[in-house]
């Protein structure tokens, strides 16, 4: 009898171990969670893998609201609007300070191709918060605006962002969504989430893989048409990225025609005119969204040859470019690092 009880104890203990092991294994399984919505004038899609939900729609919206309250030129109460309306400067919060600091860094690296003080030019050519107009400015108007455009006309003094000319205004829309995906990625990292994809308006930050398959997440790249109003771009490439950010800038999304000329919202702050070169779109892979988003704008202001020369000097960047060839046909090309990620 004693032996039977002893054996029964052993069996019970074995079952307990099995049940406990099964419980922990089940609790450690990662499930997919999806958060989708509308923010920053566009859509966002977030996928992450976790044991339990760590990000709700309301939390995501709160993050967007915090960023927009600092960086949106479309919000009359935002910090950037206050800077644009003031004559001297303001105390910058963490969002504005980080984004402007990065913008100035990229402006110096690109020789002024990327410049957040370009906002008066953008408005002069009929783009921006006030809406579009198809009336071209005169050369005199452009020269006047250029007198207070230029990244050297703003600077930081401790925590304050200062302008040298009271007419200088800034617009960080060309870099803000890349920064936004970084902020959300930082939220996931703080919660111990290591597998996620964050997409805001086509700008993407990704880390890890799908669970439980372990398959790397795919990112699609669009090919624009040659028409000005392109509402149905074609998905032509897919890449698989383990970690990093992928962003795209293009002339085809926001443009109008003036006579035989195509006027893009992308302005060259050095000349005052809309960028005119063979580049149609530039997709950049970098370690984070703010870097990729800034440099996709830089490459739009370069020729394809200039873009590849720049990439050689900046090994942390990879690029994929769609451009118009000498015969007018649309072509594409990519850096070796980017090409290695393309789905065959």
Helix-strand blueprint:
Blueprint: H1 2-27, E1 31-39, E2 42-50, H2 57-71, H3 79-85, E3 89-91, H4 94-109, H5 119-124, H6 139-146, E4 154-157, E5 160-163, H7 173-190, E6 196-200, E7 203-207, E8 218-223, E9 234-240, E10 243-250, E11 255-258, E12 261-264, E13 279-286, H8 289-300, H9 304-313, E14 318-324, E15 330-334, H10 336-339
Antiparallel strand pairs: 1-2, 2-6, 3-5, 4-5, 6-7, 7-10, 8-9, 10-13, 11-12, 13-14, 14-15
Helix pairs in contact: 2-7, 4-8, 7-8
- The CATH homologous superfamily of the domain at 216-344 is called ApbE-like domains
Measured as a percent range, the helix fraction is 25-40%
The end-to-end span amounts to 69 Å
The helix-and-strand class reads alpha+beta
CATH topology heading of the domain at 216-344: T-fold
What's the order of the H and E elements?
HEEHHEHHHEEHEEEEEEEEHHEEH
Number of helices: 10
The spatial strand order of the largest sheet comes to 1-2-6-7-10-13-14-15
The total beta strand count reads 15
Q: Please give the radius of gyration in angstroms.
A: 25 Å
Using the coordinates above, name the CATH class of the domain at 216-344.
Alpha Beta
Shape: globular
CATH architecture annotation name of the domain at 216-344: Roll
Main sheet summary: 8 strands, antiparallel
Unreliable segments of 5+ consecutive residues: 1-27
Strand content: 25-35%
Average of pLDDT: 87
């Amino acid at each position: 009898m004693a032996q039977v009880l002893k054996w029964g104890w052993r069996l019970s203990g074995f079952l307990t171990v099995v049940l406990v092991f099964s419980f922990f294994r089940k609790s450690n399984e990662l499930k997919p969670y999806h958060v989708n919505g509308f923010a920053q004038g566009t859509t966002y899609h977030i996928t992450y893998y976790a044991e339990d939900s760590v990000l709700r729609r309301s939390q995501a919206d709160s993050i967007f609201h915090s960023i927009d309250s600092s960086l949106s030129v479309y919000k009359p109460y935002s910090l950037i609007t206050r800077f644009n309306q003031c004559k001297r400067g303001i105390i910058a919060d963490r969002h504005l300070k980080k984004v402007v600091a990065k913008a100035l860094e990229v402006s110096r690296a690109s020789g002024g191709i990327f410049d957040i003080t370009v906002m008066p030019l953008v408005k002069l050519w009929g783009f921006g918060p006030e809406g579009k107009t198809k009336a071209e400015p005169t050369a005199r108007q452009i020269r006047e605006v250029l007198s207070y455009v230029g990244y050297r006309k703003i600077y930081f003094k401790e925590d304050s962002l200062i302008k040298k000319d009271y007419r200088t205004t800034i617009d960080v829309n060309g870099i803000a969504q890349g920064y936004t995906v970084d902020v959300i990625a930082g939220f996931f990292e703080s919660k111990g989430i290591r597998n996620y994809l964050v997409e805001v308006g086509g700008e993407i930050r990704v880390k890890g893989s799908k669970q439980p398959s372990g398959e790397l997440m795919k990112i699609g790249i669009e090919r624009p048409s040659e028409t000005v109003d392109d509402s149905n771009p074609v998905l032509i490439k897919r890449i698989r990225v383990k970690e990093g950010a992928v962003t795209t800038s293009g002339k085809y999304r926001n443009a109008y025609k003036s006579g035989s000329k195509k006027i893009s919202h992308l302005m060259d702050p050095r000349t005052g005119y809309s960028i005119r070169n063979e580049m149609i779109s530039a997709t950049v892979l970098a370690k984070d969204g703010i870097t990729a988003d800034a440099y996709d704008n830089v490459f739009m202001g370069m020729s394809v040859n200039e873009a590849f020369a720049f990439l050689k000097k900046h090994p942390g960047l990879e690029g994929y470019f769609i451009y118009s060839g000498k015969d007018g046909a649309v072509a594409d090309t990519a850096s070796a690092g980017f090409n290695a990620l393309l789905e065959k």
